[in-house]
Amino acid sequence: MTNRIQTTKYTLLSFIPRNLFEQFHRTANLYFLLIVVLNWVPLVEAFQKEITMLPLVVVLSIIAIKDGVEDYRRYKFDKQINNRTTKVYDK
Fold first, then answer.
1. Distance between CA atoms of 91 and 88, rounded to whole angstroms?
2. pTM
């Protein structure tokens, strides 16, 4: 058993799937995903397929970069805290 602190949310392998899972729990992202999916149906197609995907991809990318940077800062701070030396006073 260790006294190690870990506040990070992601690992290298779980970053993309977990981040996408969390982002699609937001109503706005689900709405844009629905618009993208509907635009791939030829009867409903209003714009070019690539143009409707652009806002969703940009938003998902920006949020993923922000979450990745934030989690990396947490990782560095956890590493700093876990590597501190402590003095124990025993009577």
1. 10
2. 0.79
